[in-house]
Amino acid sequence: MNNSLQEYLIEKGLFITAISSILVIILIIIFIFLEGLPAMESYGFLNFIFGSLWAPTQGEFGVLTMIVGSLGITLLSLVMAIPLSLFCAIFMAEIAPSNMRKILKPVIETLAGIPSVVYGFFGLITLVPFMREQFGGTGFSMLTASIILTVMILPTIISVSEDAIRSIPSEYKEASLALGATQWQTIQNVIFPAALPGIITAIILGMGRAIGETLAVIMVAGNVTQYPTSLVDPVRALTANIAIEMGYATGLHYNALFGTAIVLFFMIVFLLIIANYLQYKKKVVIGGGYL
Amino acid sequence: MSFRLLSPKVYQKIMKIVFWISGIITIMILLVIIGYILFKGFEVLSLEFIFSAPIDSGRAGGIFPMIISSLYVTLISGLVAAPLGVGAAVYLAEYSEDGWIVKLIRFGAETLASIPSIVFGLFGLSFFVIFLGLGWSVLSGGLVLALMALPTIFKVAEVSIDAVPESYREGSLALGATKWETVYRVVLPAATPGITTGVILGMARAISEAAAILFAVGAALTIPVSIFDPGRPLPLHLYILATEGISLEYAFGTAAVMVIIVLIITVVTNNMVDRYQKKLMGR
């Protein structure tokens, strides 16, 4: 076979594999939108997104309670996960002796690898009864779900922000230490600000994981379609709505669940665009930009 | 800071303790979760549990059909996603020049990695199960999982191909090899441990996923023989056992099996990365 023709064909073949993820995304968008848009159209886009009533048997398809549920669980878990994971990431990158680091790295990989149903199951068995004793009610609540999600997003935030911290030029650190700053002052005033864009990316990725999590949330959140009035009220996430009702949905109800997925899809794409924008703007400004 | 209650040295000591505590808390979280699951799971874990079929929808018996289902969907996902992911990584690392198409490909892989699993589940239902007519089968499930494994394999493979020293390529090209010969005979073999790690990590994502295959694989308790048979992979079995209140005892057993699989995967991949790094540094 002609050598240069073979080379040409191989390059084109590899190109096709390279664009496979884009093709898959286009297919996903087509199929989700084809099934989902009819429901949004017939119920009205604004009614669908800003409607508070979800009652498929009565033809009511408002998903706002679930948007609130998803965001509530996510923000609450971020509040708990951010401090712990940032301290842990800085610990791994700057402070921990190498044998401690050798323990922490596989620990975080294992935390990332544990299946989400196992987390959900663990929450169902241990956390739900605990919350029931502490706060009354059923124990299935926004707070319970966000505690489980906290553990699930820890590895994402830790590993991405650790990479960000490690990628800071060591001159920055050395200059600060040479000026007589303590290690904590260096972390606080030099390392942390320099790593901030990467850290925010890490947080956004963790947020994406929290919004997208399904089965673990179903198992502990209570799944009631109402606005929570306190942290220990049950809520239903957008993801949970799909997983719970898809098994028996028909007609417009079926389409409305795909519509729920469209809302979810846009939330994730929005987060990704912010994350990419931050990566793009990743210019380190320390010392008033003179460094 | 304009005011100071404590001297910087005292601050330094306090913060050091805070950092150590946060590291230790992270380790404790993992130990508590896997310790609890393994401890409870070992009560039912036995060879019989692993190698027998479930009785009375999982209240007794074992999980053998679920293990076979899990192997089926995971292998299918690996067989489909590995060539695509590695091919894409080779193209980006060796053939492409930076431009909008490369940015688009990266954004595509990133988006694919962050799409919620339940959205994959709906796509699997409407595309593989209904549109392509593959029905509820381990094939449909495996294909959905392949899409989820793809970005992981791509990302890890690209990093490890990039890490192959430039001198390897130059040496091969100087001997008169073509670009593809260089990639196939020199770059890929040197990057194999990294690529294998990527494929394992991708398949690990597939073996632990349940939401994405909820509407694709069926929930049959029987052993799938052909790829068109329905099955019930381990995570799905655990989900059904726990949420339908069938058997907590057997749910613990199933969870323990999955935790053990995750632990094995972590140890194996860590070993490979270590060896790979040593090899690149000239042993």
SSE order and pairing:
The complex is a heterodimer of chains A (291) and B (283).
Chain A (H helix, E strand, L loop, with lengths): L2 H16 L1 H24 L1 H6 L3 E2 L4 E2 L2 H32 L2 H16 L2 H20 L6 H25 L3 H9 L4 H30 L2 H7 L16 H8 L5 H30 L11
Antiparallel strand pairs in A: 1-2
Helix pairs in contact in A: 2-12, 4-7, 4-9, 5-7, 6-7, 6-10, 7-9, 7-10, 8-9, 9-12, 11-12
Chain B lengths: L7 H34 L5 H5 L2 E2 L4 E2 L2 H32 L4 H15 L2 H15 L6 H25 L3 H9 L4 H29 L26 H10 L4 H33 L3
Antiparallel strand pairs in B: 1-2
Helix pairs in contact in B: 1-10, 3-6, 3-8, 4-6, 5-6, 6-8, 7-8, 8-10, 9-10
CA-to-CA gap between the ends of chain B? 49 Å
The 3D shape of chain B can be described as globular
Q: Identify the strand order in the major beta sheet of chain A.
A: 1-2
- The CATH architecture assignment of the domain at 67-240 and 273-289 in chain A turns out to be Orthogonal Bundle
The CATH topology assignment of the domain at 67-240 and 273-289 in chain A is MetI-like fold
In oligomeric terms, what are we looking at?
A: heterodimer
Looking at CATH, the homologous superfamily of the domain at 67-240 and 273-289 in chain A is MetI-like
DSSP helical segment count of chain B: 10
Parts with pLDDT < 50 across at least 5 consecutive residues of chain B: none
Number of helices of chain A: 12
As for the CATH topology of the largest domain in chain B, it is MetI-like fold
Biggest sheet of chain B, strands in spatial order? 1-2
Biggest sheet architecture of chain B: 2 strands, antiparallel
Structural class of chain B: mainly alpha
Q: Portion of residues in helices of chain B?
A: over 70%
Mean pLDDT of chain B: 90
* CATH hierarchy, class of the largest domain in chain B: Mainly Alpha
* Helix-and-strand structural type of chain A: mainly alpha
